[in-house]
Structure formats: C-alpha cells, structure tokens
C-alpha cells in the first residue's frame, strides 16, 4: 500500500530511505515544497489529464505516526488533511485526497461535485486509488468498490474478485489479483486496457492514457498511448516500484536510483540524480 514514487502530470515525487522527500517538475502551485518533510513512509501526487489545464497540482505524504501532510494547489481543500490520524495509506487525484484508516474506513478532502469523494460508507478497505474523476478501493475480501463519474465505465468493478491492488487513471481502472493477473475497465480507445494477458505482475500504475505493470522478475510492461515515449520501458530491469504520471513513467531500481521515460515538458523526468530512495519491497524475492 505504501508508495516510494509518485507522479502527477507535471511533477514527480520520491521517498528517500531516511524518510525525507524529493520532488522535481512544475512547482507553480507549491507542490514541490516538500524539503522539510521528515519521517514520511509513503507519497502521492495529484495526477490530472492534460485537458484539465490548471497548471497546478498537490503532493501528499504519510508520516510514520499515521498523520498526513500535503502541499500545493488547494482551491478545493484537497490539502486540508490536518487532524487526520491512524492513516495507513494515501492517494491523490485531481482536486482531492483520499486516506485509508487503520480500521478500514476512508476519509477524503477536496472537490465533491462529481461524487469521487462519496466514500464515507466504504468499510473493510485495504487499498485505495484516485483517478481524475473517480476513486477506487479494494476490500478485505478481495472485491472492489468505486465512486465518481462512470461515463466511460471506469467504475464498473462490481464483479472483480481476488484483488490485492487497484490503480485509477483518467480513462481506465486497473485491478491486480493475488495471483498476478490484471483486470481492466474503462475506455479501450487508447489501448490502456490491453493488459489482461499480463502475468506475474506484482504492481500496477495508471496514467492518463497508459497502464504500467511491474513483473515478479523486476521487468516492466506498459500498454496504451505512447506519443511521449511513456511506454518505452521494455529495456528496464531490476525495478522494484513504478509510478505513472499523466504522460510519463517512473521506475525505482533495486539500488535506490530512479529512471524515467515520457513527457518532460516541466522537468518531471529529471530524476537521474536521485539516489538512496526507499525500496518497500523487492520483486526478486516476494510477491506479497
């Protein structure tokens, strides 16, 4: 559930081994102001489809004590997370933030107009993800729940079972099963749903028009729109975590360094100097 990498449309965020955070890209909304964060265990970045041309986003961090911090664009209250406690996982979407509490309930901050924050009745949740217009959760029994705009079937997850994780993008929702298979629903026009043949996957990420999967042997697969090279991951190896921004992809290597591909209009893939990032799990040794 915890994330060492996060990617928005215009920025990227990394969690160091010492619990501090680094960020690059467009910081016009203050989303890069993470230099003073400490004791962080997970990060999230507000992602947004390019048509939502606000020029701003937000960044969220989960601290070791279960509290949450957030910086950046806050016009809808998406950074109003002060007072949240007993949080075990976080997610950030367009103009909203989700937090999973230890008791399996979910709290939200941000825009409520589209229904993506209508999660107050969710119970026994073990994982959460934010898309542009919808939110998705995994229940303890391996089923899924979703809220928000379902215009392109992104919330059609009622029949999904045996899940361990989900990833919500702009046009798609991706589910990862406990046996390493991948499920998908949404708009098929970009090719981002062409993932059902993937096997031995241990993590998934969803961008605006592409989907990324991390395999058990540390390789990376991708499907969907590749206009900016965001799916050019075939040569990547020794990867332990992935993140998908709107039009870029990040990969954390086992040695703590980061590689990136895709759109770099705002410097969001300028991660070559990053090192000593935290590795929460190694695909070379476990599928848990």
State the main characteristics.
single chain; 288 residues; mainly beta; Methylamine Dehydrogenase, Chain H; three-stranded antiparallel beta sheet; 21 strands; 0% helix; globular
Overview of this protein structure:
- β11 (134-139) and β12 form a beta hairpin.
- The N and C termini lie close together (11 Å).
- The strands form 7 sheets. This protein has a 3-stranded antiparallel beta sheet with strand order 1-2-3, with no helix packed on it.
- The chain has one domain (5-262): Regulator of chromosome condensation 1/beta-lactamase-inhibitor protein II (Methylamine Dehydrogenase, Chain H, 7 Propeller).
- Mean pLDDT is 94; it is low at 282-288.
- It has strands at 5-7, 11-15, 21-25, 40-45, 58-63, 68-72, 87-93, 96-101, 106-110, 125-130, 134-139, 144-148, 163-168, 172-177, 182-186, 201-206, 210-215, 220-224, 239-244, 248-253, 258-262.
- Helix content is 0%, strand content 40%.
- The chain is built from no helices and 21 strands.
- The chain has 288 residues and is mainly beta.
Lay out the secondary structure.
Blueprint: E1 5-7, E2 11-15, E3 21-25, E4 40-45, E5 58-63, E6 68-72, E7 87-93, E8 96-101, E9 106-110, E10 125-130, E11 134-139, E12 144-148, E13 163-168, E14 172-177, E15 182-186, E16 201-206, E17 210-215, E18 220-224, E19 239-244, E20 248-253, E21 258-262
